[in-house]
Amino acid sequence: MNQEEFNFIYKEEFWYLSAFINSLKVDGQEIAKEIENDLKNYLQDLSGKEIQKKEIKEEILHLAKNISLSCEWIPYLEDFPYKDENSEKKYDTLGFFQFEIEYFRKDPSQKKKITPLLIQQIPFLILPRLRIYDNSEKNEGICLDLESPIYIFVTSDEIKGKNIEWTKENIYKYKKIIANWVVIYSGQWEDYSEELYERRVENNLSNRLSELHYIKRNSGFIYMAKQNYEMFFSSYMKKYVLGPTPRIRAIQFALRSINQSLDLLFLKIQAETLKNLKIIEREIQNLRLLRGLIQTKLSIMYNELDYNRREHYTKVLKHLLNEFEIANIVERINVKFNGIFDAIQDLYQKINKEMQQRTERGLIFLNLLFGAGILVDLISAIIATFNLQASDVGTRLLNGIVAIIIGCILITTIIFYARVRLVMKNRETNNEIIFIMEDLNDNIILSKRKYPPYQDYYELPNLHVEKQKHASRYAIKFLKENLKMNVISLEKMKIFKRKEEDPRGYAKSLLFKAKISIKDGRLINKVLEKYDLLAFPKENLRELSLAFDHGKILKDIEIIT
Protein backbone atom coordinates (compact mmCIF):
# COMPACT_ATOMS: atom_id res chain seq x y z
CA MET A 1 0.00 0.00 0.00
CA ASN A 2 1.46 3.40 -0.93
CA GLN A 3 1.21 6.58 1.12
CA GLU A 4 -1.67 8.01 -0.93
CA GLU A 5 -3.87 4.96 -0.30
CA PHE A 6 -3.37 5.01 3.47
CA ASN A 7 -4.88 7.33 6.11
CA PHE A 8 -6.83 7.32 9.37
CA ILE A 9 -10.54 8.08 9.45
CA TYR A 10 -11.67 10.39 12.24
CA LYS A 11 -13.89 8.92 14.99
CA GLU A 12 -14.28 11.50 17.81
CA GLU A 13 -12.19 13.68 20.11
CA PHE A 14 -11.87 14.88 23.70
CA TRP A 15 -10.70 18.30 24.86
CA TYR A 16 -9.30 19.20 28.26
CA LEU A 17 -8.98 22.66 29.81
CA SER A 18 -7.34 23.05 33.26
CA ALA A 19 -8.87 25.56 35.67
CA PHE A 20 -9.17 26.87 39.22
CA ILE A 21 -12.61 27.69 40.58
CA ASN A 22 -13.93 29.29 43.75
CA SER A 23 -16.72 26.93 44.75
CA LEU A 24 -18.18 29.55 47.13
CA LYS A 25 -18.88 31.82 44.15
CA VAL A 26 -19.57 29.45 41.25
CA ASP A 27 -20.75 25.91 40.64
CA GLY A 28 -18.40 23.97 38.35
CA GLN A 29 -21.14 22.02 36.60
CA GLU A 30 -23.18 25.16 35.96
CA ILE A 31 -20.10 26.85 34.49
CA ALA A 32 -19.52 23.79 32.28
CA LYS A 33 -23.08 24.03 30.96
CA GLU A 34 -22.68 27.78 30.34
CA ILE A 35 -19.43 27.22 28.42
CA GLU A 36 -21.03 24.42 26.41
CA ASN A 37 -24.02 26.57 25.36
CA ASP A 38 -21.88 29.63 24.70
CA LEU A 39 -19.47 27.74 22.42
CA LYS A 40 -22.30 26.01 20.55
CA ASN A 41 -23.97 29.35 19.81
CA TYR A 42 -20.66 30.96 18.87
CA LEU A 43 -19.75 28.21 16.40
CA GLN A 44 -23.20 28.15 14.85
CA ASP A 45 -23.05 31.93 14.31
CA LEU A 46 -19.58 32.00 12.70
CA SER A 47 -19.57 34.21 9.63
CA GLY A 48 -16.10 33.35 8.34
CA LYS A 49 -14.53 36.72 9.13
CA GLU A 50 -12.96 35.15 12.23
CA ILE A 51 -11.10 32.54 10.15
CA GLN A 52 -7.51 33.31 9.18
CA LYS A 53 -6.90 30.36 6.84
CA LYS A 54 -9.03 31.64 3.97
CA GLU A 55 -8.03 28.76 1.68
CA ILE A 56 -9.96 26.28 3.89
CA LYS A 57 -12.60 28.70 5.23
CA GLU A 58 -15.58 26.76 3.81
CA GLU A 59 -14.33 23.44 5.24
CA ILE A 60 -13.87 25.06 8.70
CA LEU A 61 -17.37 26.59 8.61
CA HIS A 62 -18.83 23.24 7.56
CA LEU A 63 -17.04 21.60 10.51
CA ALA A 64 -18.26 24.27 12.98
CA LYS A 65 -21.90 23.92 11.87
CA ASN A 66 -21.78 20.13 12.34
CA ILE A 67 -20.20 19.85 15.77
CA SER A 68 -21.63 17.86 18.69
CA LEU A 69 -20.23 19.30 21.90
CA SER A 70 -20.76 18.56 25.59
CA CYS A 71 -18.81 19.91 28.57
CA GLU A 72 -18.36 18.61 32.13
CA TRP A 73 -16.45 19.97 35.15
CA ILE A 74 -14.11 17.42 36.79
CA PRO A 75 -12.75 18.52 40.21
CA TYR A 76 -9.35 17.01 40.92
CA LEU A 77 -7.95 18.74 44.03
CA GLU A 78 -10.61 20.19 46.30
CA ASP A 79 -9.68 22.34 49.34
CA PHE A 80 -6.87 23.80 47.24
CA PRO A 81 -6.63 27.45 48.43
CA TYR A 82 -4.80 29.16 45.56
CA LYS A 83 -4.51 32.96 45.36
CA ASP A 84 -3.57 34.67 42.08
CA GLU A 85 -0.87 37.23 43.01
CA ASN A 86 -1.67 39.35 39.95
CA SER A 87 -5.44 39.68 40.33
CA GLU A 88 -5.68 38.97 44.09
CA LYS A 89 -8.53 36.55 43.28
CA LYS A 90 -8.88 33.45 45.44
CA TYR A 91 -9.87 29.91 44.45
CA ASP A 92 -10.35 26.66 46.35
CA THR A 93 -10.50 23.87 43.75
CA LEU A 94 -8.19 22.63 41.00
CA GLY A 95 -9.71 20.63 38.17
CA PHE A 96 -10.45 20.64 34.45
CA PHE A 97 -13.28 21.02 31.97
CA GLN A 98 -13.74 17.91 29.84
CA PHE A 99 -15.30 18.29 26.39
CA GLU A 100 -16.61 15.42 24.29
CA ILE A 101 -16.53 16.44 20.62
CA GLU A 102 -17.73 14.74 17.48
CA TYR A 103 -18.09 16.17 13.99
CA PHE A 104 -20.72 14.87 11.57
CA ARG A 105 -22.37 12.55 14.08
CA LYS A 106 -25.49 12.39 11.89
CA ASP A 107 -23.51 11.87 8.70
CA PRO A 108 -20.44 9.70 9.48
CA SER A 109 -19.48 9.45 5.82
CA GLN A 110 -18.31 13.10 6.05
CA LYS A 111 -15.68 12.12 8.62
CA LYS A 112 -13.44 10.75 5.88
CA LYS A 113 -12.75 14.35 4.80
CA ILE A 114 -11.51 15.48 8.24
CA THR A 115 -7.76 16.07 8.37
CA PRO A 116 -5.43 16.98 11.27
CA LEU A 117 -5.12 20.48 9.78
CA LEU A 118 -8.91 20.94 10.07
CA ILE A 119 -9.08 19.50 13.58
CA GLN A 120 -6.82 22.17 15.07
CA GLN A 121 -8.87 25.08 13.65
CA ILE A 122 -11.91 24.98 15.95
CA PRO A 123 -9.93 24.99 19.24
CA PHE A 124 -7.99 28.02 17.93
CA LEU A 125 -11.22 29.79 16.98
CA ILE A 126 -12.83 29.39 20.40
CA LEU A 127 -9.84 30.62 22.45
CA PRO A 128 -10.75 34.34 22.12
CA ARG A 129 -14.31 33.46 23.14
CA LEU A 130 -13.06 31.62 26.22
CA ARG A 131 -10.84 34.58 27.16
CA ILE A 132 -13.85 36.90 27.07
CA TYR A 133 -15.78 34.46 29.23
CA ASP A 134 -12.85 34.04 31.66
CA ASN A 135 -12.35 37.82 32.05
CA SER A 136 -16.00 38.81 32.54
CA GLU A 137 -16.87 40.20 35.98
CA LYS A 138 -19.62 37.66 36.59
CA ASN A 139 -17.09 34.84 36.20
CA GLU A 140 -14.50 36.07 38.69
CA GLY A 141 -14.82 32.71 40.47
CA ILE A 142 -13.00 30.84 37.67
CA CYS A 143 -9.49 30.94 36.23
CA LEU A 144 -8.97 29.04 32.97
CA ASP A 145 -5.57 27.91 31.74
CA LEU A 146 -5.61 29.80 28.45
CA GLU A 147 -1.84 30.19 28.16
CA SER A 148 -1.69 26.55 27.07
CA PRO A 149 -3.55 25.27 24.00
CA ILE A 150 -6.73 23.31 24.65
CA TYR A 151 -5.58 19.72 24.93
CA ILE A 152 -6.97 17.60 22.06
CA PHE A 153 -7.25 13.80 22.16
CA VAL A 154 -8.25 12.49 18.71
CA THR A 155 -9.38 8.93 18.13
CA SER A 156 -9.80 6.71 15.07
CA ASP A 157 -11.28 3.23 14.62
CA GLU A 158 -10.91 2.89 10.86
CA ILE A 159 -8.17 3.11 8.24
CA LYS A 160 -8.46 4.10 4.60
CA GLY A 161 -6.95 1.02 3.04
CA LYS A 162 -6.36 -2.36 4.64
CA ASN A 163 -5.53 -2.85 8.32
CA ILE A 164 -1.85 -2.84 9.24
CA GLU A 165 0.16 -4.53 11.98
CA TRP A 166 1.88 -1.71 13.86
CA THR A 167 5.38 -3.07 13.99
CA LYS A 168 8.22 -0.57 14.33
CA GLU A 169 8.95 -0.97 10.62
CA ASN A 170 5.38 -0.05 9.60
CA ILE A 171 5.27 2.86 12.03
CA TYR A 172 8.36 4.33 10.38
CA LYS A 173 7.03 3.49 6.91
CA TYR A 174 3.93 5.63 7.51
CA LYS A 175 5.57 8.04 9.97
CA LYS A 176 4.58 11.23 8.16
CA ILE A 177 0.85 10.43 8.22
CA ILE A 178 0.97 9.15 11.81
CA ALA A 179 2.97 12.20 12.91
CA ASN A 180 0.38 14.64 11.55
CA TRP A 181 -2.36 12.92 13.57
CA VAL A 182 -0.19 12.65 16.69
CA VAL A 183 0.83 16.33 16.84
CA ILE A 184 -2.31 18.30 16.00
CA TYR A 185 -0.91 21.79 16.68
CA SER A 186 1.77 21.59 13.98
CA GLY A 187 0.57 23.54 10.96
CA GLN A 188 1.06 20.34 8.90
CA TRP A 189 3.72 21.92 6.73
CA GLU A 190 4.99 19.89 3.80
CA ASP A 191 8.68 20.60 4.32
CA TYR A 192 9.16 19.17 7.82
CA SER A 193 12.29 17.05 8.12
CA GLU A 194 12.32 13.26 8.32
CA GLU A 195 14.00 13.59 11.72
CA LEU A 196 11.01 15.53 13.07
CA TYR A 197 8.55 12.86 11.91
CA GLU A 198 10.69 10.15 13.48
CA ARG A 199 10.71 12.02 16.79
CA ARG A 200 6.92 12.39 16.71
CA VAL A 201 6.26 8.67 16.21
CA GLU A 202 8.52 7.58 19.06
CA ASN A 203 6.89 6.24 22.23
CA ASN A 204 3.96 4.30 20.86
CA LEU A 205 2.40 3.36 24.20
CA SER A 206 0.30 0.47 22.95
CA ASN A 207 1.31 -3.09 23.73
CA ARG A 208 -0.74 -4.42 20.80
CA LEU A 209 0.11 -4.61 17.10
CA SER A 210 -3.48 -3.61 16.22
CA GLU A 211 -3.36 -0.24 18.04
CA LEU A 212 -1.49 3.07 18.25
CA HIS A 213 -1.46 5.14 21.45
CA TYR A 214 0.39 8.49 21.49
CA ILE A 215 0.38 11.26 24.09
CA LYS A 216 2.26 14.51 23.42
CA ARG A 217 2.43 17.86 25.23
CA ASN A 218 -0.64 19.42 23.62
CA SER A 219 -2.43 16.59 21.86
CA GLY A 220 -2.82 12.83 21.77
CA PHE A 221 -3.93 10.22 19.24
CA ILE A 222 -5.42 6.75 19.62
CA TYR A 223 -6.12 4.30 16.82
CA MET A 224 -7.90 1.05 17.64
CA ALA A 225 -9.44 -1.42 15.22
CA LYS A 226 -13.22 -1.02 15.22
CA GLN A 227 -13.97 -4.15 17.24
CA ASN A 228 -11.38 -3.28 19.88
CA TYR A 229 -12.67 0.30 20.03
CA GLU A 230 -16.21 -0.87 20.73
CA MET A 231 -15.11 -3.35 23.37
CA PHE A 232 -12.35 -1.52 25.23
CA PHE A 233 -12.35 2.23 24.58
CA SER A 234 -15.02 3.27 27.11
CA SER A 235 -14.20 0.60 29.67
CA TYR A 236 -10.40 0.80 29.59
CA MET A 237 -8.90 3.55 27.42
CA LYS A 238 -10.92 6.41 28.92
CA LYS A 239 -9.88 5.42 32.44
CA TYR A 240 -6.25 4.38 31.99
CA VAL A 241 -5.00 6.43 29.03
CA LEU A 242 -7.21 9.49 28.61
CA GLY A 243 -8.02 9.87 32.33
CA PRO A 244 -4.49 10.46 33.72
CA THR A 245 -3.62 12.97 30.98
CA PRO A 246 -5.81 15.93 32.11
CA ARG A 247 -5.04 15.19 35.77
CA ILE A 248 -1.29 15.48 35.25
CA ARG A 249 -1.86 18.49 32.99
CA ALA A 250 -3.87 20.11 35.82
CA ILE A 251 -0.95 19.42 38.18
CA GLN A 252 1.36 21.09 35.66
CA PHE A 253 -0.98 24.13 35.53
CA ALA A 254 -1.02 24.37 39.34
CA LEU A 255 2.76 24.05 39.57
CA ARG A 256 3.22 26.74 36.92
CA SER A 257 0.87 29.00 38.88
CA ILE A 258 2.79 28.40 42.13
CA ASN A 259 6.03 29.09 40.28
CA GLN A 260 4.67 32.40 38.97
CA SER A 261 3.43 33.39 42.45
CA LEU A 262 6.88 32.69 43.93
CA ASP A 263 8.47 34.95 41.31
CA LEU A 264 6.09 37.80 42.18
CA LEU A 265 6.57 37.34 45.94
CA PHE A 266 10.34 37.29 45.54
CA LEU A 267 10.18 40.67 43.77
CA LYS A 268 8.03 42.09 46.57
CA ILE A 269 10.23 40.95 49.44
CA GLN A 270 13.04 43.50 49.23
CA ALA A 271 10.67 46.48 49.01
CA GLU A 272 8.31 45.49 51.83
CA THR A 273 8.10 46.68 55.44
CA LEU A 274 8.21 44.25 58.34
CA LYS A 275 4.39 44.35 58.62
CA ASN A 276 3.87 43.45 54.96
CA LEU A 277 6.63 40.87 55.21
CA LYS A 278 4.42 38.96 57.63
CA ILE A 279 1.68 38.90 54.98
CA ILE A 280 4.17 37.63 52.40
CA GLU A 281 5.30 34.92 54.81
CA ARG A 282 1.69 33.76 55.22
CA GLU A 283 1.29 33.63 51.43
CA ILE A 284 4.49 31.61 51.09
CA GLN A 285 3.26 29.23 53.78
CA ASN A 286 0.05 28.80 51.78
CA LEU A 287 2.06 28.04 48.63
CA ARG A 288 3.97 25.44 50.61
CA LEU A 289 0.65 23.89 51.57
CA LEU A 290 -0.37 23.75 47.90
CA ARG A 291 2.96 22.17 47.00
CA GLY A 292 2.36 19.59 49.70
CA LEU A 293 -1.12 18.78 48.36
CA ILE A 294 0.30 18.30 44.87
CA GLN A 295 3.15 16.15 46.15
CA THR A 296 0.61 13.97 47.94
CA LYS A 297 -1.17 13.36 44.63
CA LEU A 298 2.14 12.68 42.94
CA SER A 299 3.11 10.23 45.69
CA ILE A 300 -0.03 8.24 44.92
CA MET A 301 1.01 8.10 41.27
CA TYR A 302 4.56 7.05 42.13
CA ASN A 303 3.16 4.32 44.39
CA GLU A 304 1.07 3.11 41.47
CA LEU A 305 4.22 2.91 39.38
CA ASP A 306 5.73 0.69 42.07
CA TYR A 307 2.78 -1.58 42.78
CA ASN A 308 0.25 -1.46 39.92
CA ARG A 309 0.47 -4.61 37.83
CA ARG A 310 -1.16 -3.07 34.73
CA GLU A 311 1.95 -2.74 32.60
CA HIS A 312 0.23 -0.61 29.97
CA TYR A 313 -1.18 1.81 32.55
CA THR A 314 2.15 2.26 34.37
CA LYS A 315 3.85 2.78 31.01
CA VAL A 316 1.36 5.57 30.22
CA LEU A 317 1.73 7.12 33.68
CA LYS A 318 5.51 7.15 33.52
CA HIS A 319 5.37 8.67 30.05
CA LEU A 320 2.97 11.41 31.17
CA LEU A 321 5.14 12.41 34.15
CA ASN A 322 8.11 12.64 31.82
CA GLU A 323 6.25 14.34 28.95
CA PHE A 324 4.94 17.12 31.18
CA GLU A 325 8.30 17.42 33.03
CA ILE A 326 6.63 17.28 36.44
CA ALA A 327 9.77 16.31 38.39
CA ASN A 328 11.76 19.16 36.83
CA ILE A 329 9.07 21.75 37.64
CA VAL A 330 8.83 20.51 41.25
CA GLU A 331 12.61 20.72 41.60
CA ARG A 332 12.70 24.30 40.28
CA ILE A 333 9.94 25.29 42.70
CA ASN A 334 11.81 23.72 45.63
CA VAL A 335 14.91 25.74 44.70
CA LYS A 336 12.80 28.93 44.65
CA PHE A 337 11.30 28.15 48.06
CA ASN A 338 14.82 27.79 49.46
CA GLY A 339 15.90 31.05 47.81
CA ILE A 340 12.91 32.96 49.18
CA PHE A 341 13.47 31.49 52.63
CA ASP A 342 17.07 32.74 52.59
CA ALA A 343 15.95 36.17 51.31
CA ILE A 344 13.40 36.52 54.13
CA GLN A 345 15.96 35.52 56.75
CA ASP A 346 18.42 38.09 55.39
CA LEU A 347 15.72 40.76 55.32
CA TYR A 348 14.82 40.03 58.94
CA GLN A 349 18.49 40.44 59.81
CA LYS A 350 18.57 43.77 58.01
CA ILE A 351 15.39 44.96 59.73
CA ASN A 352 16.68 43.89 63.15
CA LYS A 353 19.94 45.71 62.53
CA GLU A 354 18.14 48.91 61.48
CA MET A 355 15.83 48.65 64.50
CA GLN A 356 18.82 48.27 66.77
CA GLN A 357 20.53 51.30 65.24
CA ARG A 358 17.38 53.47 65.55
CA THR A 359 16.92 52.39 69.16
CA GLU A 360 20.52 53.11 70.03
CA ARG A 361 20.26 56.59 68.45
CA GLY A 362 17.13 57.25 70.52
CA LEU A 363 18.85 56.20 73.73
CA ILE A 364 21.85 58.40 72.93
CA PHE A 365 19.49 61.35 72.42
CA LEU A 366 17.69 60.71 75.74
CA ASN A 367 20.97 60.29 77.59
CA LEU A 368 22.06 63.66 76.21
CA LEU A 369 18.83 65.21 77.45
CA PHE A 370 19.32 63.77 80.91
CA GLY A 371 23.04 64.46 80.92
CA ALA A 372 22.59 68.10 79.96
CA GLY A 373 19.91 68.58 82.64
CA ILE A 374 17.33 69.69 80.06
CA LEU A 375 14.52 67.58 81.52
CA VAL A 376 15.30 68.83 85.05
CA ASP A 377 15.13 72.41 83.73
CA LEU A 378 11.73 71.68 82.14
CA ILE A 379 10.37 70.36 85.43
CA SER A 380 11.74 73.41 87.25
CA ALA A 381 10.16 75.67 84.64
CA ILE A 382 6.74 74.09 85.25
CA ILE A 383 7.05 74.50 89.00
CA ALA A 384 8.23 78.09 88.58
CA THR A 385 5.34 78.84 86.24
CA PHE A 386 2.75 77.65 88.75
CA ASN A 387 4.42 79.70 91.52
CA LEU A 388 4.30 82.95 89.53
CA GLN A 389 2.10 85.57 91.18
CA ALA A 390 0.04 87.40 88.64
CA SER A 391 -2.13 90.43 89.28
CA ASP A 392 -4.50 90.00 86.36
CA VAL A 393 -6.49 87.18 84.78
CA GLY A 394 -4.72 87.45 81.36
CA THR A 395 -1.28 86.86 82.86
CA ARG A 396 -2.52 83.89 84.89
CA LEU A 397 -4.12 82.41 81.75
CA LEU A 398 -0.89 82.85 79.77
CA ASN A 399 1.12 81.24 82.57
CA GLY A 400 -1.30 78.28 82.56
CA ILE A 401 -0.95 77.79 78.79
CA VAL A 402 2.85 77.88 79.07
CA ALA A 403 2.70 75.32 81.86
CA ILE A 404 0.47 73.01 79.81
CA ILE A 405 2.81 73.23 76.78
CA ILE A 406 5.88 72.50 78.89
CA GLY A 407 4.02 69.66 80.60
CA CYS A 408 3.08 68.12 77.24
CA ILE A 409 6.69 68.28 76.15
CA LEU A 410 7.74 66.52 79.35
CA ILE A 411 5.06 63.81 79.08
CA THR A 412 5.89 63.21 75.39
CA THR A 413 9.58 62.86 76.23
CA ILE A 414 8.85 60.41 79.04
CA ILE A 415 6.55 58.35 76.76
CA PHE A 416 9.23 58.32 74.04
CA TYR A 417 11.81 57.16 76.54
CA ALA A 418 9.53 54.39 77.81
CA ARG A 419 8.74 53.33 74.24
CA VAL A 420 12.43 53.13 73.34
CA ARG A 421 13.04 50.99 76.39
CA LEU A 422 10.09 48.78 75.43
CA VAL A 423 11.41 48.42 71.87
CA MET A 424 14.79 47.42 73.28
CA LYS A 425 13.09 44.86 75.50
CA ASN A 426 11.01 43.50 72.62
CA ARG A 427 14.06 43.34 70.38
CA GLU A 428 15.71 41.08 72.90
CA THR A 429 12.79 38.64 72.53
CA ASN A 430 13.54 38.15 68.79
CA ASN A 431 14.56 34.53 68.76
CA GLU A 432 16.51 32.21 66.55
CA ILE A 433 16.26 28.44 66.80
CA ILE A 434 19.55 26.67 66.16
CA PHE A 435 19.38 22.96 65.39
CA ILE A 436 21.99 20.36 66.22
CA MET A 437 20.66 17.65 63.92
CA GLU A 438 22.16 14.20 64.28
CA ASP A 439 21.35 11.39 61.86
CA LEU A 440 21.23 7.66 62.62
CA ASN A 441 24.94 7.36 61.70
CA ASP A 442 25.89 9.99 64.33
CA ASN A 443 26.69 12.60 61.65
CA ILE A 444 25.97 16.26 62.34
CA ILE A 445 23.95 18.12 59.73
CA LEU A 446 25.26 21.52 58.56
CA SER A 447 24.38 23.91 55.76
CA LYS A 448 26.65 26.16 53.70
CA ARG A 449 25.77 29.86 53.76
CA LYS A 450 25.02 31.41 50.37
CA TYR A 451 25.07 35.08 51.43
CA PRO A 452 27.08 37.43 53.70
CA PRO A 453 27.88 37.54 56.52
CA TYR A 454 30.12 34.45 56.60
CA GLN A 455 29.36 33.56 52.98
CA ASP A 456 30.52 29.99 52.12
CA TYR A 457 31.04 29.14 55.80
CA TYR A 458 29.21 26.19 57.37
CA GLU A 459 26.51 26.78 59.96
CA LEU A 460 24.05 24.84 62.06
CA PRO A 461 20.59 24.89 60.42
CA ASN A 462 18.59 27.72 61.98
CA LEU A 463 15.21 29.36 61.91
CA HIS A 464 13.96 32.82 62.97
CA VAL A 465 10.82 32.76 65.18
CA GLU A 466 8.74 35.44 66.83
CA LYS A 467 7.58 33.89 70.10
CA GLN A 468 9.84 31.86 72.33
CA LYS A 469 7.00 29.95 73.97
CA HIS A 470 6.06 28.36 70.60
CA ALA A 471 9.64 27.43 69.74
CA SER A 472 9.16 23.65 70.08
CA ARG A 473 6.17 23.73 67.73
CA TYR A 474 8.12 25.79 65.17
CA ALA A 475 11.09 23.42 65.47
CA ILE A 476 9.05 20.27 64.81
CA LYS A 477 7.20 21.90 61.92
CA PHE A 478 10.48 23.05 60.35
CA LEU A 479 12.05 19.61 60.59
CA LYS A 480 9.02 17.67 59.39
CA GLU A 481 7.52 19.96 56.72
CA ASN A 482 10.47 21.96 55.40
CA LEU A 483 13.21 19.35 55.63
CA LYS A 484 10.99 16.25 55.28
CA MET A 485 12.63 14.58 58.27
CA ASN A 486 11.37 12.01 60.76
CA VAL A 487 11.96 13.47 64.23
CA ILE A 488 13.01 10.58 66.46
CA SER A 489 13.75 12.84 69.43
CA LEU A 490 13.85 16.60 70.10
CA GLU A 491 15.53 18.10 73.15
CA LYS A 492 15.60 21.78 74.11
CA MET A 493 19.17 22.31 75.28
CA LYS A 494 19.74 25.91 76.41
CA ILE A 495 19.39 29.60 75.55
CA PHE A 496 22.32 31.64 74.30
CA LYS A 497 22.44 35.43 74.55
CA ARG A 498 24.57 36.43 71.60
CA LYS A 499 24.68 40.24 71.19
CA GLU A 500 28.33 40.44 70.26
CA GLU A 501 29.02 37.13 68.52
CA ASP A 502 26.44 37.51 65.75
CA PRO A 503 26.76 40.59 63.46
CA ARG A 504 23.16 40.08 62.30
CA GLY A 505 21.89 41.43 65.60
CA TYR A 506 20.15 38.42 67.14
CA ALA A 507 19.91 38.81 70.89
CA LYS A 508 18.80 35.34 71.88
CA SER A 509 19.12 31.87 70.36
CA LEU A 510 17.40 28.69 71.44
CA LEU A 511 19.34 25.49 70.93
CA PHE A 512 17.56 22.25 70.06
CA LYS A 513 19.17 18.86 69.63
CA ALA A 514 17.28 16.57 67.24
CA LYS A 515 17.77 12.95 66.26
CA ILE A 516 16.47 12.62 62.72
CA SER A 517 15.94 10.20 59.86
CA ILE A 518 14.45 10.50 56.38
CA LYS A 519 10.67 10.22 56.05
CA ASP A 520 10.43 8.05 52.98
CA GLY A 521 13.47 5.91 53.62
CA ARG A 522 15.56 7.16 50.71
CA LEU A 523 19.32 7.48 51.08
CA ILE A 524 20.02 10.36 53.40
CA ASN A 525 22.70 11.89 51.17
CA LYS A 526 20.19 12.40 48.35
CA VAL A 527 17.70 14.11 50.65
CA LEU A 528 20.32 16.31 52.26
CA GLU A 529 21.57 17.38 48.83
CA LYS A 530 18.03 18.26 47.76
CA TYR A 531 17.58 20.59 50.76
CA ASP A 532 21.12 22.07 50.65
CA LEU A 533 22.31 20.24 53.75
CA LEU A 534 25.48 18.23 54.36
CA ALA A 535 26.24 15.45 56.85
CA PHE A 536 29.65 15.52 58.60
CA PRO A 537 31.17 13.00 61.01
CA LYS A 538 31.71 14.60 64.41
CA GLU A 539 35.47 14.14 64.23
CA ASN A 540 35.62 16.30 61.07
CA LEU A 541 33.80 19.31 62.52
CA ARG A 542 36.95 20.84 64.02
CA GLU A 543 38.44 21.18 60.53
CA LEU A 544 35.51 23.20 59.14
CA SER A 545 35.13 26.98 58.98
CA LEU A 546 31.98 27.54 61.03
CA ALA A 547 29.93 30.75 60.83
CA PHE A 548 29.18 33.06 63.77
CA ASP A 549 29.81 31.35 67.11
CA HIS A 550 28.51 27.95 66.02
CA GLY A 551 31.90 26.36 66.70
CA LYS A 552 31.77 27.65 70.28
CA ILE A 553 28.22 26.32 70.68
CA LEU A 554 29.32 22.86 69.57
CA LYS A 555 32.25 22.98 71.97
CA ASP A 556 30.06 24.13 74.88
CA ILE A 557 27.84 21.06 74.54
CA GLU A 558 30.86 18.83 73.83
CA ILE A 559 29.99 17.88 70.24
CA ILE A 560 33.44 19.22 69.33
CA THR A 561 35.97 18.05 71.90
Major sheet size, sense and barrel closure: 7 strands, mixed
Determine the strand fraction and express it as a percent band. 15-25%
Please count the helical segments.
17
Tally of structural domains: 3
Poorly predicted spans: none
Instruction: Give the terminus-to-terminus CA distance.
Output: 82 Å
The residue fraction in helices comes out at 40-55%
**Roughly how many Å is the radius of gyration?**
34 Å
Mean of residue pLDDT? 82
**What characteristic shape results from the CA principal axes?**
elongated
Q: Structural class from helices and strands?
A: alpha+beta
For the secondary structure, the number of strands is: 14
Describe the structure.
By secondary structure, the chain is an alpha+beta fold. The protein folds into three domains: 235 residues, no CATH class; 73 residues; 126 residues, Nucleoside Triphosphate Pyrophosphohydrolase, CATH 3.90.79.10. It has 17 helices and 14 strands. The strands form two sheets. Strands 1, 2, 3, 4, 5, 6 and 7 form a seven-stranded mixed beta sheet that branches. Strands 8, 9, 10, 11, 12, 13 and 14 form a seven-stranded mixed beta sheet that branches. A hairpin with a 6-residue loop joins strand 2 and strand 3. The radius of gyration is 34 Å and the shape is elongated. The model has no long low-confidence stretch (mean pLDDT 82).
